[in-house]
Amino acid sequence: MNSNWSNYQEFNDLRKKPEFYEAFLFINGFFEGIGVLVKEGMLDIRWIALLIASWTTEYWEKIKEAIIEHKKNTGAKRLLSEYEYLYNKLMNYIEEHPELKT
Question: What is residue 95's three-state secondary structure?
Fold first, then answer.
């Protein structure tokens, strides 16, 4: 979350730094896994809304454009698709439950 970039090239350059890339993989793996659990009905989206809504939304909004560009450049169509699903499901849930907006 502390890393900054203003375009895809800067993001791609950061990915070459081992400490950034390891953290990037770890965090994305976490959210991707949570997305699978929600999608498969093993974890209720309400729990995500109550426990980690701001982390989930802030991080996705930070990386979204870079991920879209990376998918275009590499053809990795499913890259973080479960995280994107999680984000969209969470945003819909929060829209239906405005008392949970942060």
Answer: helix
The tens digit of pLDDT for each residue in 52-96 reads: 999 999 999 999 999 999 999 999 999 999 999 999 999 999 999
Tens digit of pLDDT for each residue in 16-32? Answer: 999 999 999 999 999 99
Q: CA–CA separation, 37 vs 45, rounded Å?
A: 9
User: What's the one-letter identity of residue 43?
Assistant: L
Give how many domains the chain has, as a whole number.
1
Query: Is residue 15 in a domain?
Result: no
Range of the domain at 78: 28-100
Residue 19, in any domain of the structure: no
Residue 6 lies in a domain: no
Report the alpha-carbon distance of residue 36 to residue 38 in Å, rounded. 5
**Contact by Cβ (8 Å): 14, 62:** no
Between the two ends of the chain, the Cα-to-Cα distance in Å is 18
Which pTM value belongs to this model? 0.93
